[in-house]
Amino acid sequence: MTLCFNRPTRQVPDARARWPQSADEAEEILMEPTKQTIVLVDDDRNILTSVQMTLEAEGFTVHTYTDGESALHGLMSRAADLAVLDIKMPRMDGMELLQRLRARSQLPVIFLSSKEVDQLMGLRLGADDYITKPFSQRLLLERIRALLRRNELTRNEAVGANPAGNMVRGNLSLDETRHQCLWHGRDIQLTVTEFLLVKALATRPGLVKSRDQLIDAAYGENIYVDDRTIDSHIKRVRKKFRQVDEDFNQIETLYGIGYRYKEE
């Protein structure tokens, strides 16, 4: 069975719900954006209920699950735009669920955790962001919106890219239209955050990017992210490249300063 992670950005509404009275109205209906769907997974039903109410009040469609196994089955049958995962859950914890997701999809994921070690492990496994428990629902809402904007921005930039949609730097090729990264012609599966980090570094080879600059590039401005989050993402990016090329060393660390993509 195929996992249905990313829903289309537009779809034709049910004609029974609203029948257009003119050609102009029909066009308006076709252009209406599809509601974005959030998958929320936590074994604490109080958290599920309160967060679901907050997100639905902001116009999101929300699917909730109390364990990772049910969430995985749900994602097999219903598309989603983003997932918020707790770590400690019965039947399948958030770590295993994330690993299974990342084996099939680059669906944007935010982790909920109270332990620093779990936060770092989640980032290493491919989470895009994390929220520390206990958390402010306003903060979670802003993180969700920021991650969705980044994902949408990547798609929109791809539409306006050159006909090939590619950025080529030596053996590196980034195809924004397909969200595809190639190294020596071999596919590297990157999350949204990882893709944006590689793009930010490769855009100006030889130029040092501070962690703050990389945070802005990957998360947007005015979003607080710990420096160690960037370090974890870079470590995972390097690991992915070295799975296809053990000699990969294009991303250099300048201790106390930041990172840069080597000139070729």
Compact description:
By secondary structure, this protein is an alpha/beta fold. It is built from 9 helices and 12 strands.
Structure notes:
- There is one protein chain.
- This protein has 264 residues and is of the alpha/beta class.
- The protein has 2 domains: 129 residues, Rossmann fold (3-Layer(aba) Sandwich), CATH 3.40.50; 98 residues, Orthogonal Bundle (Arc Repressor Mutant, subunit A).
- Strands 2-1-3-4-5 form a 5-stranded parallel beta sheet, sandwiched between helices. A 4-stranded antiparallel beta sheet has the order 6-7-8-9, covered by helices on one side.
- Helix 7 crosses helix 8.
- About 10% of the residues have low confidence.
- One of its GO terms (molecular function) is phosphorelay response regulator activity.
- InterPro entries: CheY-like_superfamily (IPR011006), OmpR/PhoB-type_DNA-bd (IPR001867), Sig_transdc_resp-reg_receiver (IPR001789), WalR-like (IPR039420), WH-like_DNA-bd_sf (IPR036388).
Write the layout of secondary structure elements.
Elements: H1 23-31, E1 37-41, H2 45-57, E2 61-65, H3 68-77, E3 82-86, H4 94-102, E4 109-113, H5 116-125, E5 129-132, H6 137-159, E6 166-169, E7 172-175, E8 180-183, E9 186-188, H7 192-203, E10 209-210, H8 211-219, H9 227-242, E11 251-254, E12 258-261
Parallel strand pairs: 1-2, 1-3, 3-4, 4-5
Antiparallel strand pairs: 6-7, 7-8, 8-9, 10-12, 11-12
Helix pairs in contact: 3-4, 5-9, 7-8, 7-9
